[in-house]
Amino acid sequence: MLAADWITFPPHAHGMALQFDIRAWAACAPALQTPADWQAWSQAPWLPAGTDLPALAAMAPMLRRRVNVTGRAALHPAYDIAAVDDATGTPKGIPAVFASRHGDSHRAYEMLGELANGQPLSPTAFGLSVHNAIGAMFSIDRRDPSNMQALSAGRDTAENALVEACALLEEGADEVLVVCYDTPLPDPYLDFADEPQCLFGWAWHIGRPDGRHPAFSLEIIEPDSLDAPRPPALLPHGLDVLRFVLTDEPMLLHRGESAAWRWQRHG
Description:
Blueprint: H1 2-7, E1 17-28, H2 35-43, H3 61-64, H4 69-80, E2 96-99, H5 105-116, H6 123-129, H7 133-142, E3 148-151, H8 157-170, E4 176-182, E5 200-207, E6 215-221, H9 237-246, E7 251-255, E8 260-266
């Protein structure tokens, strides 16, 4: 399977390029809600601050009350570009990849505190803390039984999300929903942070390049290509990937934990 080959990073992976186009996109962060907001931000980016996001009106109330700010950051853009059947107006099934480096770390930290204090854990809180919970609630609300994956891959999280999504395209999916999101770590973990922290989420519909949408490629490159010193990062890498897509820059290079990566724009 293509995804397995890439995730294990064999020697022959160098030079293999995944090609895809982005057919729709949306994003969400404090003070950045509309496409116009994001386009302006991409030309002069700054690190979003705070947790002020609008209510998740698109989701059924019984599920919405279970979604915290991390979930809202992920699900706002997912609903904004959610696939709909043109003939019936009902939700259209589409495979999805939800990717977050840290996931809902705040729920997990709260439960660790409860355990340390000898308190019983809430089964609901535990169920909502697992890495696929946000994507699962999206699938349940839309009654969409399509393939849904949730992943975390350290500094390579955004890249591995595209690896998985392109593998789904290779297996026959017409389009794939990719959702990438994160939130600042709980305060006791901030000493371990190796990139700027902020609340954000973005979603793309990707497909095979068809000449009608912005096309991109992603490949593993030799780590020596990134030996030159680079300035300190302004943004978490997942958000920097979105910035790259929204600009006209031809290339984005990234040194992950397991590989060095090159994103390229093609027309």
